[in-house]
Amino acid sequence: MIEIIGLCSLGIILVVAEPMIMLRNFLGFSDEDYLKEKNEICKSIYRLITCPMCLSFWLALIWTFNPLTASIVSILADVVYKLIMRL
Questions:
Q1: Burial of 27 (0-12, 13-18, 19+ CB in 10 A)
Q2: What is the share, in percent, of the chain residues with pLDDT greater than 70?
Q3: SS3 readout for 62-85
Q4: How far apart are CA 44 and CA 82, in angstroms?
Q5: For the segment 37-72, what is each residue's pLDDT rounded down to a tens digit?
Q6: Residues 6 or more apart from 24 whose CB is under 8 A from it?
Q7: What is the pTM of this model?
Q8: 39-54: string of b/e by CB count within 10 Å (b at 16+)?
């Protein structure tokens, strides 16, 4: 249970934390570049690192090797992210 909550929190932090946003912009994955980008692979990577649901799923899958746990973490991360952004 603690592992699920921790992975959920880590996924959200990696999406919304200011240092991570600055790192994404430094690596060329900024919001402005996304709209101009023609390469589908770059667009997919951008969506992966800016979506808490996607990022949490892959982090949890790599950490636990359990697709069921990764799915639970992913859904929980999305719900918590939407609650946080609503406040």
A1: exposed
A2: 100
A3: HHHCCHHHHHHHHHHHHHHHHHHH
A4: 21
A5: 778 888 888 899 999 999 999 999 999 999 999 999
A6: 30, 49, 50
A7: 0.87
A8: eeeeeebbeebbbbbb
